[in-house]
Amino acid sequence: MKYVIGGASGLTGTALCNELRSNGHDVVALVRRDPRGPDESRWDPYPGSVDHELIGSADVVVNLSGADPRRPWTPAYKRRILDSRVSATRTLARAVAAATTKPVFLSASGSTVYGAERGPEVLTETSRAGSGFLSSVAHQWEEEASAAADAGARVCLLRTTAILDRSGGLLQLMLPVFRLGLGAKFGDGSQYFSCLSLRDWVAAVIRLAEDDSMQGAYNLACPQTPTNAELTRELARRLHRPAVLRAPATPMRWVLGEQAVAVLGSSRVRPARLLDAGFEFRDPDIGSVLDAALG
Fold first, then answer.
1. pLDDT at 290
2. Which ranges constitute the DSSP H helices of 23-168?
């Protein structure tokens, strides 16, 4: 199969490209510089520039593009978070829609569409949307993919939770702190923290690409959602370090402001549609997720 991937250089994109190529698939990465070979193609999502002939020749187009939301949320950077996602999705969705033979379109989204303050509520793909900045971003992100679906393409929305892997993302930031014995739960630690191993994310995305019966929104999360306290305890145990500290919620809100919801909010996301489709998670709980993440 031929895959065209936007956002191929990130944590998830790199892992997906490596797995697809190791299985003999043809993979072309969309880049915003001069291509360095036949496995790259230049695009610029902001003005909507992409090679339509390339998109039309693909079996699967995967959109993983978007600015890192972990940087400080200044007004300008919040606009960049939104614009980077909307423009990339719009460009690829319209190119897919215009193709004579339409490829499958897998478009990144976030479980943040449900909001960050949902307590112990189990969130499935049929749960109502939430509120807040990241929820609004995810909603607009998904809306842009509708152009491809309306034109008859099979579209899957990847509502991804936090992916834990030592090679990047949140866990890469946590490891030095925990290795110093400074790991701490946030607030009282009772808030749910939805997450997923990188290898299960890759396997789920490939399943969605290859199974013609699957379309619409899918939660990408491990089936057994840990609390923040459970994550803290299990990571510390695997690093043979103590984790008795606690970061009080109120000072964290003062320091982090609006971004505090990322660590103090509670989101218990269940991958109901993947489970119903018979997808088997290699890492269904936080223990196995961390074992895979730490290698």
1. 98
2. 52-57, 75-98, 133-150
